[in-house]
Structures are given as structure tokens and as C-alpha cells.
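User: quick one, sequence for these C-alpha cells?
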């Protein structure tokens, strides 16, 4: 199932399985009219939720794809690493690395998440990602690696300093 949320911004929740992409994209276009879609949220990387990410990214050139570490994401990437490597290179200017610290595996050790993401993007190592699950890195280099690891985020959010804590409101 894929859902469409239309408010000030438009978000699409999940894509659809293989073979339904054209109809799905047509339905989104009918529902949104000429408005741009702002977000694509993919809950997990199994094909029933993620098979049409590439088609979506082709159609909606303003949307970024935010990856956040999780067992399902890494498992899916490792099933077809060469196809995913091509995807990451093709969209290296639109992929953001997420570090959602609300996930249990990130909340306990944030540096663990950063390490796994870095190794996945920048190396060709086969490493233990979750439990007994292994993942092989994409070995991206140069501009592709820089874009995904930091430049895309910086271009969208900026290089602002963290705000100072208002101690009066805190207490």
C-alpha cells in the first residue's frame, strides 16, 4: 500500500510493488495536479514498499531520498549491490544520510550508526551490519561520496551553528 498526504507539503508514503509503477505514478499525478511532491517516505526496503523508488526519483526531480540505517534497508541493499550502487551514483546529488537516533540500535550508540553508514557508502568491505547479517559497501568515491555523506545535507540545511540553549526555559 502507498499513501499520499496532501497538506502544505505533499508526502508519498512508500512506493508499490514491481509491475504497478506506471499506474501508481499516474494516480499520484492525478491527485496532486501540478503541485510538486515534497517527500517520499519509504518505511522499509522490501520490494513491496520500494520497487519504484527509481521511477519516482526520475519523475519528481526535487525530491531527496533519505536513508537511515536499519536491518531491512541494509538487507535489501545487499541483495542487489551493483544495482543499488548504480542508483546511489545516479542520485548522489539527492541522497541524504539520515541518523534517526530514535531507532534502538542508534539510540544506544550513535557512533555505531555513523560507522555503519560510512562503511556502506565509502568502502567495499563486507562487514557485520546487524546481528549475523553482513553488508558489502558500495565503495563510492569523490563527489558521489561527498554529496551523500555531507554535502547534500549542508546544501539543504546550511552550515549553521547549533543554537544556544536558553537555560531559563530549560529550568
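Assistant:
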Amino acid at each position: 500500500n502507498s499513501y499520499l498526504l496532501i497538506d502544505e507539503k505533499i508526502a508519498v508514503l512508500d512506493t508499490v510493488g514491481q509491475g504497478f509503477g506506471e499506474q501508481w505514478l499516474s494516480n499520484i499525478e492525478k491527485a496532486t495536479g501540478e503541485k510538486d511532491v515534497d517527500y517520499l517516505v519509504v518505511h522499509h526496503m522490501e520490494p513491496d514498499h520500494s520497487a519504484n523508488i527509481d521511477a519516482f526519483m526520475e519523475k519528481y526531480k526535487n525530491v531527496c531520498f533519505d536513508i537511515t540505517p536499519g536491518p531491512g534497508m541494509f538487507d535489501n541493499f545487499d541483495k542487489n549491490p551493483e544495482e543499488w550502487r548504480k542508483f546511489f551514483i545516479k542520485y548522489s546529488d539527492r541522497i541524504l544520510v539520515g541518523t534517526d537516533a530514535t531507532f534502538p540500535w542508534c539510540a544506544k550508540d550513535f557512533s555505531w550508526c555513523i560507522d555503519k553508514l560510512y562503511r556502506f557508502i565509502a568502502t567495499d568491505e563486507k562487514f557485520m551490519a546487524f546481528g549475523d547479517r553482513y553488508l558489502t559497501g558500495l565503495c563510492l568515491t569523490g563527489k558521489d561520496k561527498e554529496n551523500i555523506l555531507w554535502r547534500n545535507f549542508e546544501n539543504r540545511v546550511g552550515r549553521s551553528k547549533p543554537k544556544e540553549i536558553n537555560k531559563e526555559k530549560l529550568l
